[in-house]
């Protein structure tokens, strides 16, 4: 990996396993870890093709697979992908970098980029990540991203990258349960559309 994600450079040793352990514990405690997946499921027809981009240990892809969708999960962190493979058999879980992704797959109907992935990519690769997601989602399909807007990536910079990547900004909310966005919100859930071919 030439551009190393902040997920590796801005975190402490043992961070990956700690993340896996934390989410396993939350699942054991019965925490609701499926909020984002419920929204995605509501946006797509049955048996859609879903790209879980920056899937981590697979909590969202697992839910969408259980609801009958075909899920491919991609993450740069092999520790998290191993946990996804162990805990959630069914989807295809792949170690890969979103900024240079070249999957040999049919295009996806939707890509979900949840859990602050855009904040954790390598600095300066955000536009490439969006371009690469665009290449993997069919014309007319959607890309839904949620991230904190008070950290490394400002919304203005993100929106400029969206435009440069040729994606259409369709809707924006402050939360995954669709509270309306306001300029003082510190989180944004953005719905992007891949333009239809003429
Ligand atoms: C906070 S975790 C979120 C994981 C998962 N989406 C969730 O919500 O549970 C952020 C994830 O972004 C991934 N990530 C960051 N940069 C990436 C890149 N360039 N390519 C693939 N994954 C990346 C990290 O490896 C990490 O798993």
Could you walk me through the main structural features you see in this protein, from its secondary elements to its overall organization?
By secondary structure, this protein is α/β, with parallel strands linked by helices. The chain has eight helices and seven strands; from the N terminus they run H-H-H-E-H-E-H-E-E-H-H-E-H-E-E. It has a seven-stranded mixed beta sheet, sandwiched between helices. Strand 1 (about 50-55), helix 4 (about 60-65) and strand 2 form a beta-alpha-beta unit. Helix 3 packs across helix 4 (about 60-65) and helix 7 crosses helix 8. The N and C termini lie far apart (about 35 Å).
Query: Bound small molecules, which ones?
Result: S-adenosylmethionine
Approximate shape? globular
Give the biggest sheet.
7 strands, mixed
Strand order of the largest sheet: 3-2-1-4-5-7-6
- Low-confidence parts, pLDDT < 50 over ≥5 residues? none
Mean pLDDT: 96
Q: Give the % helix.
A: 25-40%
* Cα Rg: 16 Å
| Coarse structural class | alpha/beta
Please tally the helical runs, counting DSSP H or I stretches of 4 or more residues: 8
Say how many strands there are: 7
Element-by-element helix/strand order:
HHHEHEHEEHHEHEE
Strand percentage lies at: 15-25%
Distance between the termini: 36 Å
Write the layout of secondary structure elements.
Layout: H1 6-9, H2 15-28, H3 35-43, E1 49-53, H4 59-66, E2 70-75, H5 78-87, E3 92-95, E4 108-113, H6 117-120, H7 126-136, E5 137-148, H8 155-164, E6 168-173, E7 187-193
Parallel strand pairs: 1-2, 1-4, 2-3, 4-5
Antiparallel strand pairs: 5-7, 6-7
Helix pairs in contact: 3-4, 7-8
The structure holds S-adenosylmethionine (SAM).
